[in-house]
């Protein structure tokens, strides 16, 4: 069968005539001259080599071939409208999926308002939350596993943009029976000679959480950990100390460990991170929602 290239304008004109069964009314609908409508239909018939309309001086009727083409033309028009609509929605980031990373030591409840707000605003975008391994403080951004992430800087991840959303204190975590728990507020000097819990992760991130900048030297490690729960166990059972966000302290208070403020160290922030080179409108929309809903909410 020979391929036929149908002009969408001719199909649209024919469909108007098929639905009105009147050249004049079809011309009014399409804002064309009646002669142009007639000419379009004749060209379409010549292209297909079939009669689509049975014309008399008073009536216009569809031939059997015209009935079939009218139905297909109607479906094509509906599909075209749907294609344009869905294409524009995709361009606005209203459909598809978005992978959101969650770095270690960020409880979902802390950022849930932003996630829920985004889901409510774009219900047809499937939001997939992915908890990153302890060894990946970038939340999955470093290797492109996610589109956007919540993380705690500093992280060594090239090409990642960060925007602070939530600020909270870093707290010292100690065994509940440790002598330092007798003090209400600690200094980093109080912890310098204590055994710390270390981890095999991003050195920049590890240095921040062991306060290397404030102490001026790497920590002495009593044990190695691979999760936040591992840190709690190291404190309980190995006598280690460490630093945790205030939100983590609230989660595990009264479980064999104690927490104290440290006066002379900088706070930690929860940032939203993304690759600026990304042109995905869902990423831009999610960052905007996170900025609006969460920034900047201090937790002390």
Automatic annotation (TrEMBL):
One Pfam match, given by its short name, reads HTH_1
Keywords associated with the record:
DNA-binding, Transcription, Transcription regulation
Name all HTH lysR-type domain ranges.
6-63
Listed InterPro entries: LysR_HTH_N, LysR_subst-bd, WH-like_DNA-bd_sf, WH_DNA-bd_sf
Keyword Transcription regulation, does the record have it? yes
- Report the PROSITE patterns cross-referenced here: HTH_LYSR
Q: Does the keyword Signal apply?
A: no
UniProt family annotation:
Belongs to the LysR transcriptional regulatory family.
What protein name does the entry list?
Answer: LysR substrate-binding domain-containing protein
């Amino acid at each position: 069968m020979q391929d036929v290239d149908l002009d969408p304008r001719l199909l649209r004109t024919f469909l108007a005539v098929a639905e009105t069964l009147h050249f004049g009314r079809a011309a009014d609908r399409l804002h064309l001259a009646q002669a142009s409508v007639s000419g379009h239909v004749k060209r379409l018939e010549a292209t297909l080599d079939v009669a689509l309309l049975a014309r008399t001086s008073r009536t216009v009727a569809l031939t059997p071939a015209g009935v079939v083409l009218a139905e297909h033309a109607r479906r094509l028009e509906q599909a075209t409208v749907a294609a344009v609509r869905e294409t524009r929605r995709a361009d606005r980031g209203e459909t598809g999926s978005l992978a959101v990373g969650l770095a270690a030591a960020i409880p979902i409840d802390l950022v849930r308002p932003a996630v829920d707000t985004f889901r409510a605003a774009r219900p047809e975008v499937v939001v997939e939350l992915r908890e990153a391994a302890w060894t990946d403080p970038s939340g999955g951004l470093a290797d492109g596993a996610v589109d956007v992430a919540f993380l705690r800087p500093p992280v060594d991840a090239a090409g990642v943009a960060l925007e602070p959303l939530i600020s909270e204190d870093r707290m010292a975590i100690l065994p509940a029976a440790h002598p330092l728990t007798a003090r209400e507020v600690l200094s980093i000097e109080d912890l310098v000679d204590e055994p710390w819990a270390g981890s095999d992760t991003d050195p920049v991130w590890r240095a921040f959480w062991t306060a290397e900048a404030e102490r001026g030297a790497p920590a002495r490690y009593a044990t190695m950990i691979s999760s936040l729960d591992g840190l709690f166990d190291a404190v309980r059972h190995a006598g280690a100390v460490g630093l945790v966000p205030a939100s983590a302290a609230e989660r595990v208070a009264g479980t064999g460990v104690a927490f104290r403020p440290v006066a002379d160290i900088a706070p930690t922030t929860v940032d939203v991170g993304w690759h600026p080179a990304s042109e995905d409108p869902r990423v831009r929309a999610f960052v905007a929602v996170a900025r609006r809903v969460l920034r900047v909410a201090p937790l002390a």
